[in-house]
Design goal:
Elements: H1 2-12, E1 22-38, E2 47-51, E3 58-68, E4 71-80, E5 96-103, E6 106-114, H2 116-123, H3 136-140, E7 147-155, E8 162-169, E9 181-190, E10 193-205, E11 208-221, E12 224-234, E13 241-253, E14 256-267, E15 272-283, E16 288-299, E17 307-309, E18 312-314, E19 326-335
Antiparallel strand pairs: 1-2, 1-3, 1-19, 3-4, 4-5, 5-6, 6-7, 7-8, 8-9, 9-10, 10-11, 11-12, 12-13, 13-14, 14-15, 15-16, 16-19, 17-18
Length: about 325
């Protein structure tokens, strides 16, 4: 159904007259942190490392071409790399690689894109999917989908504060379950209030579809921000339901900002991990800030949940039930 809707939107955009002006922007972000990480597991040593702490380092290119009649063509390709070695991610433009059209009817793109669920997750997480204690560990465990390849994506314009998005990622298989992912989401933004809800299905096994869900909200009140979300990844099979809840707040103090987040991850079998995170960022200029970050995950005797930051995920061995990973870092981030 989602694919039919997108095909109809694409067909509606075809008859246009082209006369055009184009622009291309080069942008990026470089983030380096000196971190100490301890997985708290027997036989696994703690380590001191350099990697991204607040946001993943990246280099991107984006551009538009005015096609006339309120229509424009667009593209965005973005590559990730490690600041410690300079080595790029395994996929050259694995962060994002899309091309598409945009008009009064919305935006239609094809390629590798963030899922609507991830968009809501980022907008409703106080740590911005960075710093230790971020909700990136929900995506790192394979139960939630952050990006989709081979995808067709539609995003509407805002109408009375509401935006609709839908996407399908093709598994491109010739036999067995299709591996297709289909997802929809609705977001609402009105002044200081934001809310979003999303749903996805993945045809991974012949026995049934995996399901993913999210609800997130945010509210700003002067120098105070409050954000929270609840995510569910329900894979086919018994005792496979995973859930994560985040609740956080931030307060600005002049050029500084203090962040705090509480997190709880659970599995249907009784495994539970409680996360606690505190970070502080100090702005030096429009493009540069320094920061300090601390986080820990306290697992019960059935759990080995991880602790994640933008450039690192600390995962105890599956057999290290009850391990409590902990980490802290100081770093600098610069955008251009």
């Amino acid at each position: 159904m989602a694919l039919k809707i997108m095909a109809a939107v694409l067909a509606a955009t075809l008859p246009f007259a082209a006369s055009a002006q184009s622009s291309v922007t080069v942008y990026g972000l470089v983030d380096a942190a000196l971190a100490h990480e301890n997985p708290d597991a027997a036989g696994v040593s703690s380590r001191t490392a350099i990697h991204a702490g607040q946001a993943s380092s990246r280099l991107g290119f984006r551009g538009t071409e005015d096609l006339g009649g309120g229509m424009k063509a667009l593209f965005n390709v973005e590559a990730g790399f490690g600041i410690d070695t300079g080595v790029g991610d395994s996929a050259l433009f694995g962060r994002r690689a899309v091309v598409g059209l945009e008009g009064n009817w919305g935006m239609l793109t094809v390629g590798r894109e963030y899922t609507p669920i991830d968009t809501i997750s980022s907008a409703s997480h106080i740590l911005g999917q960075g710093f230790y204690g971020s909700n990136l560990n929900a995506f790192a465990n394979g139960r939630m989908t952050r990006r989709i390849s081979n995808s067709v994506n539609y995003k509407s314009k805002a109408m009375a504060g509401l935006k609709f998005s839908a996407a399908i990622g093709l598994g491109e298989t010739s036999s067995g379950p299709s591996q297709d992912l289909q997802t929809v989401a609705v977001e609402y933004q009105k002044g200081a209030l934001y809310a979003g809800i999303g749903y996805a299905t993945l045809e991974r096994l012949a026995s049934g579809d995996d399901r993913e869900m999210i609800f997130g909200a945010a509210y700003t009140m002067g120098a105070l921000e409050f954000k929270g979300n609840y995510m569910v990844g329900d894979q086919t099979g018994p005792n496979n339901r995973y859930s994560q809840a985040n609740l956080g707040a931030a307060m600005a103090f002049g050029p500084g900002k203090l962040y705090g987040n509480l997190q709880q991850s659970k599995l249907q079998n009784g495994a539970r991990g409680n996360g606690y995170a505190v970070s502080y960022a100090y702005t030096l200029s429009k493009r540069t800030n320094v920061y300090a970050s601390y986080g820990t995950t306290v697992n019960n005797d059935r759990a080995a949940f991880s602790l994640a930051a933008a450039g690192s995920t600390i995962t105890p061995p599956a057999t290290a039930l009850g391990a409590d990973p902990v980490a802290y870092a100081v770093g600098i981030r610069h955008t251009f």
